[in-house]
Design goal:
Keywords: Membrane, Signal, Transmembrane, Transmembrane helix. This protein is mainly α. Helices cover 74% and strands 0% of the residues. The protein has one domain.
């Protein structure tokens, strides 16, 4: 069973994240969404950094709340989703150029990519593998310095949407 408030928090997470980067990017004249990272919008020297910082903090908190309400999902998956939420919120606490930013962002992307692998169903594992593939594409784009912003947004959007997919899905499919 999924708690009704978990459905609300799961729906709010992508709104906060995608809305945050959309509004912040629109207010930043030299920002290129294909090239530049989400973290650049929340960096110490970013124009209106509070917008993306707030979006990241809300998204992370929503993932923690959602994880507590997904009682039909394996506990290890719920714990990993909550840890991913905490790491996402910490990205807001440790903006670029903090030395802590990269490890925290890496943890957030990693945890948010693997939690579905632990959910215990074939469908969730397929979704988890898709998230891992998107994470790999983002890693390649970081190394090649091409389409970093675009690949990051595709990954982050997918990661923020999957908890809602699970929360609104029938509990019978995701039961342990």
């Amino acid at each position: 069973m999924t708690a009704p408030w978990a459905r609300v928090s799961s729906a709010l997470a992508p709104v906060a994240l995608i809305g945050g980067w959309t509004i912040a990017a629109a207010r930043t004249s030299d920002f290129d969404s294909v090239r530049d990272t989400i973290s650049a919008l929340a960096a110490i020297n970013a124009q209106d950094r509070w917008i993306m910082t707030t979006g990241l903090a809300i998204t992370g908190a929503c993932h923690v709340v959602t994880a507590t309400g997904l009682t039909s999902v394996q506990p290890s998956a719920r714990f990993t989703l909550a840890a991913g939420g905490v790491a996402t919120a910490l990205v807001a606490v440790f903006p670029q150029p903090s030395e802590t930013h990269a490890p925290v962002a890496t943890a957030a992307f990693g945890l948010m990519s693997v939690w579905l692998l632990l959910a215990g169903t074939r469908r969730s594992r397929i979704a988890g593998l898709i998230l891992l593939a998107l994470l790999a594409v983002f890693g390649v784009s970081l190394r090649s310095e091409r389409w970093v912003g675009l690949s990051e947004r595709v990954l982050a959007a997918a990661q923020s949407l999957w908890p809602a997919v699970v929360a609104f899905h029938t509990p019978r499919t995701l039961s342990h």
